[in-house]
Amino acid sequence: MSELEKGYRRLLNLYPRDHRERHGEEMLGVLIADAGDRKTPGWRDTADVLWGAFRLHVRRLLAADVLAIVSLLGPIAVLAGAATSLHELAWWVRAGSVPPFGQLPDAPVWFVWLGVAILAVAGKRRAAAIGAWVATAGLIVVLQLPFAGWQWFTDKAGWVLLSAITAFALSTADGRKARGGAAIVTMAATVLVIVGLGVFGHRHEIAEYAALAVLFAGAVLAAGIRSATGWRAALVLSAPVATALLARLVHAVHDGPINDTVSTLIFFGAPLVFLVAIGGLVRLPRRAGAD
Predict the structure, then answer these.
(1) pLDDT tens-digit profile of 37-95?
(2) Using an 8 Å Cβ cutoff, are 88 and 199 in contact?
């Protein structure tokens, strides 16, 4: 056995045993055939094998069927978070002025998410995943800016959460298992309605509640209402609804801002615990009759 084959076999041992038994020899043959005159595995092949093994292990631990749907629809759903910025932009355009950065600090992030959505729909998942993580980091940075107060935090927390989950789903889930065209069109139409409500009904309470209802309804219709998997994916996609309702509850019982630690626990921790509990993010034991 050559050093090249030994090296590839050591790398392939990182895959789950049953996967190696079914596909190991085939994968080994492809790797050796592509190695050319190399005596040891190249860095690119090593990185690909390591990444593939990691993704497979993660998929088996996570609710991969739910995250597959999120990886397809999440990049589109996140764009609904741009409604407030688009309202601000429309106001400044009507006024014939250029908005200062402080009015639209998250605008670059939404442009990145638009690119991510296009890449995801086109099947460029690796590029989409990288862009999603960049955009998520951008939203987190924006929340730390001096002029981003507690109100801004509560408005954006849900979109940060959905951004992070979507980036994670794009990085780990197999989007080919998700529903296709009709679901994408439904989610895109939902986002357009929410953006319209945000632009023309900004800060009107009825419009804000209507936007939350539209997001939830659109997520349910797009993800699929006939299966438990679809419902769980819809709840993941509706994370901004949960944080928005939490924000209104907190505002009703507490006058003024809350310290950062408590805010993080409320607006990120509570929705995450709920999503884990329903099996939206991790694989729970299957019950009789569950899909």
Answers:
(1) 888 888 888 998 998 888 777 666 667 788 889 999 999 999 998 887 787 777 777 77
(2) no
Complete DSSP assignment for 151-181: HHHHHHHHHHHHHHHHHHHHHHS-GGGS--H
How big is the chain by its Cα radius of gyration, in Å?
22
Q: Are 101 and 59 in contact (CB under 8 A)?
A: no
The amino acid present at 162, given as its one-letter code, is L
- Residue position matching structure tokens 């992070």: 164
Q: What is the pLDDT of residue 106?
A: 81
User: 16, 51 in Cβ contact below 8 A?
Assistant: no
Percent of the chain whose predicted confidence (pLDDT) is above 70? 85
Listed in sequence order, the residues at least 6 apart from 116 whose beta carbon sits closer than 8 Å to its beta carbon are 75, 78, 128, 131, 132, 135, 170
Question: What mean pLDDT comes out for the span 157-168?
Answer: 91
pTM, rounded to two decimals:
0.73
Contact 194, 78 (CB under 8 A): no
Helix (H, G, I), strand (E, B) or coil at 68: helix
Q: How confident is the model at residue 203 (pLDDT cuts 50, 70, 90)?
A: low
Tokens standing for 79?
A: 């764009």
Give 133-156 as a DSSP string.
HHHHHHHHHHHTSTT--HHHHHHH
Q: What percent of the chain has pLDDT over 90?
A: 26
Taking every pair of Cα atoms in the chain, the longest distance, rounded to a whole number of angstroms, is 74
User: What is the Cα–Cα distance from 174 to 67, expressed in whole angstroms?
Assistant: 8
Q: How far is CA 179 from the centre of its chain?
A: 16
Q: Return the closest-CA partner of residue 154 out of 262, 75, 233, 70.
A: 262
